[in-house]
Design goal:
The protein is of the alpha+beta class and 68 residues long. The protein has a domain of 37 residues. Helices cover 16% and strands 29% of the residues. The chain contains one helix and five strands, in the order E-E-E-E-E-H. The chain has a three-stranded antiparallel beta sheet, covered by helices on one side. The protein has a two-stranded antiparallel sheet with strand order 1-2. The relative contact order is 0.26. The mean pLDDT is 83. The structure holds zinc ion. The site of zinc ion has 8 residues, from loops.
């Protein structure tokens, strides 16, 4: 998956394909947010990145560097 030059790495846990999701944080109620989620096992980055112009780069970086 190519995203403006950003490469979304496979899931660090199961090796599955990851995808960028967007929606509304249920705990905040209204702020649109973005995150990366594994299609296979469902693990994901923190859902706290506001859906703005550069948020894709932010969530991709978060996903690619996560270790837990
Ligand atoms: Zn996974």
């Amino acid at each position: 998956m190519k995203l403006d030059g950003k490469q979304l790495l496979p899931c660090p846990f199961c090796g599955g394909e990851a995808e960028i999701k967007k929606g509304v944080d249920s705990t905040q109620g209204r702020e649109p947010i973005a995150w990366v989620e594994c299609k296979k096992c469902g693990c994901c980055t923190k859902k706290e990145i506001e859906w703005e112009n550069d948020c894709i780069g932010v969530v991709v970086s978060l996903w690619n560097t996560r270790k837990d």
